Amino acid sequence: MPVKHGVDLEAFGAFSEHAAEHPEEIQFELEARGVYEGRAGHSLTKVEQFSLGGEEIDRETREYTFPMGAWREVEEAAGFVGPTDRPEPVEVALAALTGCLNVAVSFTALHEGIDVEGLETTVRLDFDPRIVLFLDEVENSEHTFENVDIEIEVSGDGLGEAERELLEAGARRSPVWNLFRLPHDVEPNVRTASSPIPGDD
Questions:
Q1: Are 195 and 136 in contact (CB under 8 A)?
Q2: What residue ranges carry the coiled-coil annotation (predicted)?
Q3: Which residues of 59-68 are buried (b: 16+ CB within 10 A; e: fewer)?
């Protein structure tokens, strides 16, 4: 059983062949929920069920909770009572991008037969919070972020320019990178407790 990057290559090859012939079976519907904790800016974000190939998968053992908030120094300066320190949602979005880029690069290494021993991705950006703090108009949201800087460090035997170019091209297959980069129809729809559920008559 040949194994590379922790993957059984024969099983992966069979999976890829089946997925190519039946793409409808590898379509996902994903979701996350953020539950407000009664403190400005604080939520518990939950990742649980998902759908794969039109089938909902909802295991009791699959429940991941991420506390969201802000930086203690900022909460203290802003007058929060009992300031705490939590990952800020923008940071978590950047963390998701690093993880997904690592997925894309490692799958590229697997696909191209490249030996990778070390892989580390760092993402940075400048963040202007004036919009969310009501210090500027929402029409100026395009100024909230500067360009995202991405650095991917890869180590391993026999890595030359050809391998570097393949891995860099493969990084562009990252779904989260494309979620960041491409335009999507994203609109917040607010429903109060007394509002009818869409589709109900």
A1: no
A2: none
A3: eeeeeeebeb
**What pLDDT, on the 0 to 100 scale, is given for residue 193?**
83
Q: Compute, in degrees rounded to 10, the torsion defined by CA atoms 185, 104, 96, 150.
A: -90
Q: What is the largest CA-CA distance in the chain?
A: 64
Instruction: Quickly list DSSP for 138-174.
Output: GGGGGGSB-PPEEEEEEE-TT--HHHHHHHHHHHTT-
Q: Are 42 and 68 in contact (CB under 8 A)?
A: yes
Q: What counts of helices (H) and strands (E) characterise the chain?
A: 5, 10
Q: For 2-46, what is each residue's pLDDT tens digit?
A: 888 889 999 999 999 999 999 999 999 999 999 999 999 999 999
Do the beta carbons of residue 109 and residue 167 sit within 8 Å? Answer: yes
| Length of the chain (residues) | 201
Report the pLDDT value the prediction gives residue 198, as an integer from 0 to 100: 59
Q: What share of the chain is helix, strand, coil (3-state, %, to 5)?
A: 35, 20, 45
**Structural domains in the chain?**
88-182 (3.30.300.20)
